[in-house]
Amino acid sequence: NTNYNRIMKTDTKTCKGCGQSKPLSEFHKGIKNADGLQSRCKACDRLRSIEKCKQEPLYKKWSSMLARCSNPNNIKYKNYGGRGIAVCDEWKIFANYKAAVEVLGVQPTPKHTIDRIDNDKGYFSGNIRWMNKTGQNINKRLSDKNKSGHKGVHWFKNRWDVGVKRGGHKYYVGRFIELEEAVAARAKWIDIHFPS
Q1: Pairing relation of β-strands 159-166 and 128-131?
Q2: What is the pLDDT of residues 98-136, one digit of tens each?
């Protein structure tokens, strides 16, 4: 065994990835080659793995998620990391995030993307789902300018104005004296015109 360790450290092999001559200890075992080692060194193998991940459509979304939650220079940081939205430690490794998304099943349509169920919590198992743009718009947090505490309801000229935005269109629902009446009218209007 001591002899084997000495050979692994002193004998070399040329990597087919980078073309460098490296000690045998820098290669993973591989049964396909006569020498019992893989043809690429460990460093090239790691790089190849990363490049392969980058080809997956989910990789770009994962990378964007990490950036907006952890990079203060990211344009979207103030709405994510800046307000405490974080990515769980487990998902900071792409393979773990990919496995969690696979548990959700196949993406229903190309228009569906990953959505956080509770918009005030971070990215972790149990708080994500596939959702289309309409569903995500419904799930948005309230604007800082919203004084009613309810989406689509705002105070204007001594009345509660009620509206609904869907698919790039704005729909006017009506004006109400009581806030509760305005909220109920909006919910009823959505149920009639956009049943889920």
Answers
A1: unpaired
A2: 889 989 888 888 888 888 888 889 999 999 988 887 777
DSSP H/E element including 109: none
Question: Is 113:61 a contact under the CB 8 Å cutoff?
Answer: yes
H or E stretch covering 144: none
The pTM of the full predicted model, rounded to 2 decimals, is: 0.55
* Concatenated DSSP letters of 66-107: HHHHH-TTSTTGGGTGGGT--B-GGGGSHHHHHHHHHHT-S-
Q: How far is CA 154 from CA 3, 15, 145, in A?
A: 80, 66, 9
Give the contacts of 127 (CB within 8 A, at least 6 positions apart).
116, 117, 118, 121
Nearest-10 crossing angle of helices 57-70, 94-103: 110
Widest CA span in the chain: 90
Highest mean pLDDT among 32-46, 80-94, 138-152, 179-193: 80-94
Answer for the pair 68, 78: CB distance below 8 angstroms, yes or no: no
Find out whether 140 and 119 touch, Cβ atoms under 8 Å: yes
In the chain the beta strands, taken as DSSP E runs, fall at: 12-14, 21-23, 27-29, 37-41, 113-116, 128-131, 153-156, 159-166, 169-176
